[in-house]
Amino acid sequence: MARPSSSSSAVASELRIDEKLTLIPGLPDDVAAKILSCVPYSHIDRLKLTCKSWRHFFSSKTLIRLRHHHRNLSSLLCIFPQDPSIAPPYIFDPENLAWRALPPMPCSPYVYGLCNFTSLAVGSNLYVLGGSLFDTRSFPLERPCSSSAGFRFDFRTFKWHRLAPMLYPRGSFACAAIASSDQIIVAGGGSRHNLFCAAGSRMNAVERYDIERDEWVALDGLPNFRAGCVGFLVGEGEEREFWVMGGYGESRTLSGVFPVDEYYKDAVVMELKNNGAGKWREVGDMWAEGERARPGKIVVMEDEESGCRPAIFMLDGKEILR
């Protein structure tokens, strides 16, 4: 009888299963693991019931690691409805063209209409932070409020977990993941809801979340109140920076009745160091005076593997600017 290879033993060790069990009879476990890692996420729940070794494999870090190293399998697209605590989010596997519904987020019976939250992925986990909603315990009922709640979805167990709440409730805020140090940084935000064209609160508070400790720590606030902004990281190591771009600040009224937002055309930048964060500095306007009154929807695409600067796109009517 042939002895199991060292890589097969390593797979068995990572899965913490009996070495007498095999993933696919007749194949080394490392080869079988690569084959099973190509299974679409939409089939995993059913395949977990096949046998004990498959149940361990599809619930292990090995599956995430193998999919991460296989570039075509490393990315999943997650789409959220307006209120993910009521309607389930969906993930799309672009390699296998397969959809799968996620369980709804843990729902409080007192709140509804969650929107303007931020979602981002760190490792094998998906994070959903903050947002604007309505609370039946507040008065008046038509006034939106911000949420400080945070949730983490673990793709290994396919379950949601509650996080320590943010220090400040916020929706429509800038956010970025510092994957190398397992941290998340958030900045600005407010309470405006999608049902309202304007109004709502604004804030300049900034804080950083330590994933391992499940703890939020306050940082120096933004130079101005800023909500509806976008955040992203630039650089690596000691030269890493957190950028906050666009958004709106203080609101004014027309004829003392109609609320109108004052939109920002600039960005602010904070230098991030291993021992803390630096001060904010201001960056010039994105366009000249009179070119446009407000920025369009800004989207940031980051590539962690290449380490390149993120690609920034803005939708302005029917035009896409880069």
Gist?
The protein has 322 residues and is mostly beta strands. It is built from 5 helices and 23 strands. The strands form 7 sheets. The chain has a 4-stranded antiparallel sheet with strand order 5-6-9-10, with no helix packed on it. The chain has a 4-stranded antiparallel sheet with strand order 11-12-13-14, with no helix packed on it. Strands 15-16-19-20 form a 4-stranded antiparallel sheet, with no helix packed on it.
Structural topology:
Layout: H1 6-15, H2 29-36, H3 41-47, H4 52-57, H5 61-69, E1 77-79, E2 90-93, E3 98-101, E4 111-115, E5 118-122, E6 125-129, E7 132-135, E8 145-146, E9 150-154, E10 159-162, E11 174-178, E12 183-187, E13 206-210, E14 215-219, E15 230-234, E16 241-245, E17 248-254, E18 258-263, E19 267-273, E20 276-283, E21 297-301, E22 311-316, E23 319-321
Antiparallel strand pairs: 1-2, 2-3, 4-7, 5-6, 6-9, 7-8, 9-10, 11-12, 12-13, 13-14, 15-16, 16-19, 17-18, 19-20, 21-22, 22-23
Helix pairs in contact: 1-2
